[in-house]
Task: inverse folding
C-alpha cells in the first residue's frame, strides 16, 4: 500500500467540469492556490468547491470499511475527515464559503439537485 500514489480524483473532477459546462455555469477556476487545494474555485463569489471521493472521505451513504487492515483504514479515513474540517474552518476564517460534493452526487440521477445547490451557492 505504501507504494500506491494518489493521482487525484480526475474522473470525478472531469465529470463535474462537464456538468458545469453543460449547464452554462462560468467563472470557475481549477488549481487555484488556496488553503486545502480546492478542486474548483469561484473567486468572484469566494466559493471553494471540493469534490470528495466517497471512499476516501468516508461518505455516510456509500462508505464500506475494508475487511483487511481495518485499523489503518479507520485511522486514514478519520484523518481525512479531520483535515477537511480544519480546511473548512480555515477558509471560512478568511471569508470563503466551502461547498463539498460527494462523488455519488455526480451521478445522472442527482444532476438537477446538484445544479440547484450550486446555483443557490453562487447567489
Result:
Amino acid at each position: 500500500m505504501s507504494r500506491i500514489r494518489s493521482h487525484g480524483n480526475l474522473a470525478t473532477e472531469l465529470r463535474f467540469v462537464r456538468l458545469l459546462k453543460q449547464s452554462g455555469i462560468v467563472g470557475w477556476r481549477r488549481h487555484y492556490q488556496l488553503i486545502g487545494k480546492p478542486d474548483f474555485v469561484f473567486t468572484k463569489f469566494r466559493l471553494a468547491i471540493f469534490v470528495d471521493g466517497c471512499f476516501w472521505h468516508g461518505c455516510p451513504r456509500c462508505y464500506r470499511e475494508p475487511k483487511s487492515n481495518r485499523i489503518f483504514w479507520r485511522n486514514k479515513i478519520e484523518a481525512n475527515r479531520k483535515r477537511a474540517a480544519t480546511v473548512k474552518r480555515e477558509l471560512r476564517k478568511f471569508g470563503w464559503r466551502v461547498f463539498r460534493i460527494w462523488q455519488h452526487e455526480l451521478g445522472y440521477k442527482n444532476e438537477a439537485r446538484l445544479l440547484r445547490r450550486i446555483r443557490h451557492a453562487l447567489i
Remarks:
- The helical segments are 10-22, 70-93, 111-121.
- The CA atoms of residues 56 and 77 lie 6 Å apart.
